[in-house]
Design brief:
Layout (H helix, E strand, L loop, with lengths): L4 H14 L6 E2 L1 E2 L6 E3 L5 E5 L4 E11 L15 E9 L2 E4 L2 H4 L6 E3 L1 E9 L2 E10 L26 E9 L6 E7 L5 E4 L5 E5 L12 E5 L7 H5 L12 E12 L9 E12 L5 E3 L1 E6 L5 H4 L7 E4 L16 E10 L4 E7 L3 E7 L6
Parallel strand pairs: 2-7, 18-21
Antiparallel strand pairs: 1-23, 3-5, 4-5, 5-6, 6-7, 6-8, 9-10, 10-11, 11-12, 13-14, 14-15, 16-17, 17-18, 17-19, 19-20, 21-22, 22-23
């Protein structure tokens, strides 16, 4: 059933009243200066040969406060930077000495990094802009413009770049998908790969979620992504929705091939009459990841799992992004679940939530 933003907002408010949760933690980054650090990957573990210990790391989008790919009058300096956690909530850049290689430390001109594991390989990616070379984009696009919310209306081409490798230092580029961001992967129990896409326009509306399944990473092509079936009944037409992390979920506890769903952590996005943006974090399950091509995509209703009010007030890149949560995914600890997220296009934090995929 399609829901309007007003209906979802009412659901958020009722849920906060029914299930109050403590405020989340906002992370601190060393050596960040005046730059912003937000929209991270989910945390993961690497081994430091020089330190002889494992490090809890994540990639983070780092940029100057005025960096804006729709404004050619200011420098664009987004980077995906690798950080490690030195103590709870405190992060510092991973160095070449710590990693044993300079490769994988920083990806220039990249936004919104993400990471997963497929068949024992690290799959890393992020959003990279293709700027016009014909001088077409020479004027600043106002923040209130539709292009800031619907990037298909911009002259700059949004791409997602994919890298793979056994370790971070071995990451190498293997695929580019143009005209799309927020593409995510997960490995199913039979070894196939489920892909969530993020098309804009047509039956996807402002932006939706598509689903496709492939046999190998070699099938991660523009044609495959562009032809993915779209989930058509998630939200009303005035909202965007995107998948930002995927999790296989055994349906019967056995993990047998074909007996699993796929959980999605993502966000919905709504622009109000003042062109202010509202991004709550959501979860849902794809119930038939092996048979959706013949049966149609079966899924659970949207579950709003967090909103910006779950953290204390903090920095915001601009007025329009104050109410933005951009989830990286969840981390399951022994007795609780953490949601990791970018906040207000300016900061990063974590929040203890109930596991949205617990039976």
């Amino acid at each position: 059933m399609r829901e309007t933003y007003t209906q979802l907002l009412s659901g958020i408010q009722k849920k906060q009243e029914r299930e109050p949760i403590p405020k989340g933690i906002i992370y601190t980054y060393e050596n960040i200066g005046s730059k912003l650090a937000y929209n991270p990957s989910v945390p993961f573990t690497i081994h430091s040969p020089s330190l002889q210990q494992d490090l809890r790391c994540m990639y983070v989008r780092v940029e100057s406060p005025n960096s804006n790919w729709l404004d050619p009058t200011v420098p664009y300096d987004s980077q995906a930077v690798l950080y490690s956690e030195t103590q709870k909530g405190l992060w510092k850049p991973v160095t070449e000495e710590m990693l044993g290689s300079a490769n994988g430390l920083v990806f220039d001109n990249m936004e919104d990094p993400f990471i997963s594991t497929i068949r024992g390989e690290i799959i890393f990616g992020g959003v990279v802009m293709e700027f016009p070379t014909d001088g077409k984009s020479t004027e600043k696009v106002p923040v209130e413009s539709d292009a800031h919310f619907d990037y298909t209306k911009a002259d700059v081409v949004v791409t997602t770049q994919f890298y793979r490798g056994k370790t971070i230092s071995e990451l190498r580029h293997f695929a580019t998908i143009r005209h799309m961001k927020d593409i995510r992967l997960c490995e199913l129990s039979d070894g196939s790969i489920l892909i969530a896409t993020h098309p804009q326009g047509g039956e996807a509306g402002i932006a939706g979620i598509g689903i496709t399944r492939v046999k190998s990473l070699d099938d991660l092509t523009q044609e495959t992504i562009d032809s993915a079936p779209v989930i058509k009944d998630l939200t009303d037409g005035d909202m965007k929705i995107g998948a930002l992390a995927l999790y296989p979920i055994p349906l019967d506890g056995s993990g047998d091939t074909g007996q699993e769903a796929v959980g999605i952590i993502g966000a919905i996005a709504y622009a109000d009459e003042n062109k202010d943006w509202h991004y709550p974090a959501i979860a849902l399950k794809i119930l038939n990841p092996y048979s959706f091509e013949t049966e149609g995509i079966k899924h659970t209703p949207l579950d709003v799992i967090a909103s910006r009010q779950n953290w204390t007030e903090g920095l915001s890149k601009r007025r329009q992004t104050k109410d933005v949560v951009f989830p990286a995914g969840i981390v399951r600890e022994d007795d609780y679940t953490l949601l990791i997220a970018g906040l207000s296009d300016a900061q990063t934090g974590e929040l203890v939530i109930r596991d949205p995929f617990a039976s």
